[in-house]
């Protein structure tokens, strides 16, 4: 496949920075007890205007994929009188995530939700927040060796197996596939790949021609996909285990008119449209639209001293052209 001009636009398609909700208060109440104030009591209008809590949300990267999470979190926060700070590196960057956590700890936010790029490397700063009295929950990707209170997401090994079942059904147990995924260090993607390959090798005669990583970088995802197609032009299907790979495949299928199966994780507007138009065959939604609401709800409970579950399973939903656009279930 020859390189084409559409390649230059790839990195623009998948980036859309989450809405930033700026923190303006000079001091935050936190989930910790505060000494009694000697200042005069605020007026009723001031009391209503002041948010009861301030929560931080840290994504692994700025991308349109997280817009649904931001929107649902913003609605839940407004209803609860909570102020949000939402941050994300422009591209996947562990050091930036750590700095964002450190800043929120210094600001004394009341709670933090994070989708960790690298579970082990972020565990110490998660524990630092907990030591400071700030409850932390993980979503999408877990940090099980940290002292985080809860993980919101899905069983990623099972999600990988479900993708294996889907491609097995399409190829009737035989064929050749290409696989692309994101961060090599992300726990949820490692588990997803483990579940997927385990099912394929155990239950089918499907040949996995190649697995490549894009490290969450759209331009790299395009280069890797183009390389795999050049090296294996007779493949039967492409499987994207992360949303960056899936969005990249839409661009390639549109530009080249490929008539091969393409399956992906993540359901955002571009993927829904691609399902309807035939560039994507199937998508597995992790019911991401629920994450934001659950983040706010669980952090509020933690701040109020209520017990919260260690794992909030948002399940998985398989979406194809016939069901694209319908509201996914829990």
CATH architecture descriptor of the largest domain: 3-Layer(aba) Sandwich
CATH topology of the largest domain: Rossmann fold
Number of strands: 12
Query: How are the strands of the biggest sheet laid out side by side?
Result: 2-1-3-4-5-11
Low-confidence stretches: 1-49
Order of helices and strands: HHEHEHEHEEHEHEHEHEHEHEE
- Helix proportion range: 40-55%
Alpha-carbon distance between the termini? 40 Å
Helix-strand category: alpha/beta
Q: CATH H level of the largest domain: which superfamily?
A: Response regulator
Count of helical segments?
A: 11
- Radius of gyration computed on alpha carbons: 21 Å
**Which sheet architecture does the biggest sheet show?**
6 strands, parallel
Account of the protein in words:
The chain is an alpha/beta fold and 330 residues long. Helices cover 41% and strands 18% of the residues. The longest helix has 17 residues. The two termini are 40 Å apart. The N terminus is likely disordered.
